[in-house]
């Protein structure tokens, strides 16, 4: 704030004694004493103790008429007292009609009116004095400052410039800076204030004005340094301290090469806040500043990922008063990090849309993204789509900038398209997401983020090879981009490029250890390196099947070690099957051990097992594997001694089988795939069995929480030997088209609870028997939790013919996969 010289021309007040000159001729001793006492009071007032003089003038005014100079003294000294403007105005109003008060008294009254924001009366007095003292610097300055305060912007600016040209110097520049500042032209104010300080570095007016300009422009550090030189009141200095600390908080949110640099700035801010809070906590007059410090400190806590402390501080602050919206945004981010999207969504909606569907102010790109992801994480897909549609509607591809004849690309248009892509992914509309993401990536080839987004869609559709190619193209632009490396790590895990995934993940963790996206990637990598338990089986409830028997039960278990040297895992397992047939109860027990090997595009397992099925202990073996040629084609197969696919009824009769199988899978995307399989078995009783099948999936309907697939199935078999003690048709063939549905009952990040239903109706043909119908119905539920538990159970009912007789089977199928 510009400081006026309140004590200028004070020497005039000594003229107040001149009116006693004539009287002193008649009463020399008395008048001399009165003058001496009055001068002493004036000198004492100049020293800072104005109360005696003010009491004297108050008393004297009641006894006899005061002289104009005494009234001027009274007005001037009254103006020196803090918060005494009303009294000064009362004195002025009492005497203004009785006498011609000297200019210095009018100036004091003008200042009092200005402090009370009574601009018109203040300006009238300034202009009255200017007629008497046209070149008085203080009067001219006070008048121009009052014009600025009264929002006579153009006149104030014109007069300030005229005065600066006529009387160049630091004081005139400081006055011009004040006028600019009053009009909100803070950068202009800072420029002129800096010039004033350069002209006369020791000028107090220039220094005070520069301090105000720096503070108004949020150049808080230099402003705080100046406060050590320029006399500053404690409240102002506390405000500057808080501004400087808040500047560090803002700096911690700017982009940096890595997260560690932002953490350094945030840590400095937190350390400074700790010092300020400790210094001010017991000072009553600083409690508002303490509250502001606690509010702004939450921003630094959020940068340091101390989200629980942000929420705790907000709860404490909101209990004792309102918290500003800018801080509530930090709290919303903290809630989102703590996986409480429902609170985030509610808070952001209350900030941006307090009065209905129209925002109080246009949302910034950051605001749009925060609110969008709050909707998505809270499964509020309708609100997310509505928000994106509104953004796209209000964001044309090109926008016109005032003063430029050439339309410019609109960043909000790109933001809308990017958020629409993310909506399609979250809403399970992957074909639409791929189409849009590819269009954006191809038309904006220089935008690395668009290629990364396109690659993420390809990965979500089960096409990691294509995603890898896109990421390689994106790598040319900025190889060390964190988001690029994260996406490359995910793709490397899908492709079984274990070393590459480790190198990328380790680099990302080193550069951004506390970032949410990094923590998710690290979690997925950690889960991959865990041990694993697999359990699956069926329990017959009501069955007359000649294949499985009555009261049938089977269970298959396996325990895998953590990865060894990236590519290997050891495993051991136990399998058990039992069922009751006409000829007796069949039991099979397997104890197996082996190794799994995985590498890019390859998977293989080697197993040795000890089998006991009532005919002594026998040693079996298995070799299985597959190879991916690309995202679409996979070929695999297996060879087994003492095949696990041998019917339990055959084993009950002492018949075992050796065999093998192979398959070819064609995979287009998550919505369409087919697999052709072929298997051959040689039974110990001389029978040779050939089995073949074709299965597939065609997506029919998709919503964010529901999918419906058409699942055609064709299968058949031939056998070379008849009259064996197990179900063994000469040849058979089945066609069973079906439907498979899945609905999400509950989803919260990595916890997903779903229900499934399946139904199929088809036909079965067996050589030598009449054709019959096959009917299948099933219902089940599945739970996935925290990426480490995946388990489900399904009740299945089917009815089909065996050797011309229709049999009903009701069974319960279950499976569980646990990482630990």
From TrEMBL:
Keywords recorded for this protein, A-Z: Signal
InterPro entries (alphabetical): PGA_export_porin_PgaA (IPR023870), PgaA_barrel (IPR049003), TPR-like_helical_dom_sf (IPR011990)
Residues annotated as domain PgaA membrane beta barrel: 527-820
Signal peptide per UniProt: 1-33
Domain of life per record: Bacteria
Keyword DNA damage: no
Gene Ontology molecular function: any one: poly-beta-1,6-N-acetyl-D-glucosamine transmembrane transporter activity
Alphabetical list of NCBIfam families matching this protein: PGA_TPR_OMP (TIGR03939), PRK10049.1 (NF007468)
Protein name listed in UniProt: Poly-beta-1,6 N-acetyl-D-glucosamine export porin PgaA
Organism (species): Citrobacter arsenatis
Gene label: pgaA
